[in-house]
Amino acid sequence: ILNVEQSPQSLHVQEGDSTNFTCSFPSSNFYALHWYRWETAKSPEALFVMTLNGDEKKKGRISATLNTKEGYSYLYIKGSQPEDSATYLCAFPNFGNEKLTFGTGTRLTIIP
Amino acid sequence: GAVVSQHPSRVICKSGTSVKIECRSLDFQATTMFWYRQFPKQSLMLMATSNEGSKATYEQGVEKDKFLINHASLTLSTLTVTSAHPEDSSFYICSARPGSKGDQPQHFGDGTRLSIL
After folding, report:
1. Which residues contact A94 (CB under 8 A, 6 or more apart)?
2. Do residue A34 and residue B42 have CB atoms under 8 angstroms apart?
């Protein structure tokens, strides 16, 4: 059983502030690391799939970094907006194949 | 692109009823679909991997006779909760992926909230 952990579990951020949270995963046999955003009453949306150590990906105000040697990824949100309120999930494929093991998520609430 | 449709979104039914949930990939073909269950305050737990034209692969602890999965085409997988009981009440969500590798994102349906009375 793979251990994928996210912290913090929940986060309240003032609108306009920047924030970040963490996903830690097994560093051995790394294949890929997924980030998803799950807004209330919607389906989870894929943000990034990261595969290379040191990789940094960006989508608008959201970016993510990856350290495969130490087994962690950071998700950053710059200038938070109310529409960023969601649960952010990271997921790790089992042994490079189909199945994903999900973390418990970070629930982000942006305070207007 | 990459839209997955899941329905129904909510089901309320009596104990003993069988409930079928459909998961469709609308604009791509999915050789593999996944069925997850989410318990309150927990993450998504994979129940089974559904492969087109073959038997589903169930995760440890998931009863295959209880949760019947059929993946009859490249765009449709169904999950049937047979003779549902209150303990089966949960949030079920499917996902689909165009390819077969773990470095490709999964695309999710909106989920089904199942309540068994």
Report:
1. A2, A100, A101, B102
2. no
